[in-house]
Input
Amino acid sequence: MKTYIARKLLALPLIVLGVSLLVFLAIRMLPGDPARMMAGPEAPEAAVEAMRVRLGLGQPLFMQYFGFVVHAIQGDFGISIRSNLPVASEIANRFPYTFALALTSYAMAILIGVPAGMAAAVFRNRWPDQIVMLLAIAGASVANFWLALMAMNYFAVELHWLPLLGAGSWKHYILPTIALGTLPTALIARMTRSSMIEVLSQDFIRTARAKGLGSFAIYRKHALRNALIPIVTIVGLNFGSIMGGAVVTESVFNWPGIGRLLVDSVRYRDYPMIEGVTLLAVVSVVVVNFLAEMAIAAINPRIRLT
Amino acid sequence: MTAAEETLSEMDAPRSRTSIVMRWLLRRANLVLGAVLVGLIVIVAIFAPMIATAQPDAQDLMNTLSAPSAIHWFGTDNFGRDIFSRVVYGARISLLEVVISVGISCLVGVPLGLIAGTLGKRADQIIMWIMDILFAFPGIILAILLVSVLGASLFNMMLAIAIFSIPVYARLSRNVSLGLKEMEYVEAATALGASIWRVMFDHILRNSLGPIIVQSTLTAGTVVLAAASLSFLGLGAQPPTPEWGAMMSDGRNFLGVNVYLSLFPGLAVTVMVLGFNILGDGLRDLLDPRS
Output
């Protein structure tokens, strides 16, 4: 286990380094003067000059990158062109909204996906299994923003049961959670089913039955423990797809998270903000993936041996 | 007649070619269903001018935001354009997105993976480091970063989607080539003096085609969803292109007035993605039964 953790831990800074390099290079590949781009089209010449010094544009590229990394580690991503506020503070204000939405979506995915996947495995090849699998493949195929629009149209516009846009009360969470949580729910249901089917065919289950243990006790005792692996895998390794999904879902619902901030920044060509949000989003995905891999290895010893 | 006798008589009876084909197809229902759905979209795309009831950009300002009717099967949008015809022509754009994005990512990712897997050592480490970096990005976020640099257009969006799909192919072909290069026939080819490139592209690539085809089918579904999402955000196809994501984006302003603007393009996306996903699952069962 220690070797496995050490190997993964060594790879982590290399990935973060590469991600920051890609974000750094992408913005500097823009046609025109990078200082003008980062300071904004309306910025006075003095501000552009100050940006030129800050970016170190007279220096070799690797020194510019070094400066970028040092600033990023200090939490300094520059000033937003659109709001004139520090990028870091705007991200700090928006991130809790995205985090809360990710949590409610995962809660929905676990509360619906695990029982559905278990039911499908227990009633394998019978109608409950077929219905769950049909819904799971449909859930994995549907565009989450379309689902969001349809739900908005029905529950908010026609029935007036739920608020249409924005964040505030618990009611504001329902529609965005359904839109963002559908994909992980489908994935958890599919994975829970396949891992349950594998468990139910094991010898120890037969032994448990032979000892006279009831079906319900078997599912509760053995199956729930095995459902942990799909939950951790989907929650951890699919955090990236949740972040990606949040970009679109937040834009549909005017949700004040970092996903909508990114889309708005692209529209306004707010490059310091694009740089900051992208970097933080990807680094958080890398870290969550790393933690998930560790948790999966701790639950399932077979993985760390491969 | 007992069950055993029935089975024996069935075995004795000469089976017609049709019944053999039917049995084969019935055993692979998901493959058939996926192929039918994808085939339907392909037919609609090819014969769009014959299927559409109007030109996709033809405006009828006297008949805007109308509900489905005998003349306009899916209703009309805010410019009086026929939604059915736009959805039909949209199939062409979605298929183009699939062909370009899957094609580029496959043509770049597969050779990279083959080189990494076959050469190993430093080449493997460097290529896979770059692939791990690309893989760390959520696809949509990488695409948004690239589109913000390249500019919002249909082609730039397809390129951005292709770039975030490259690591999938590189990882797949690397893993397959790692297994195949230990096979006796590959060792025999090397012993007979075949160059490393010939071994790579003539022996290993040819035998990796099954998993690559399966992956391409599944990636096609991801491409359709990503393209619709980016166009929905205004970062892909631009108006008046009848792209499904862009059409849904127009429709969001008319929720409560006319839901059909968003409903039908979204259904088309779902059918196409569902088709590719089911087809991919079916092909995997067929080409790689171990998985």
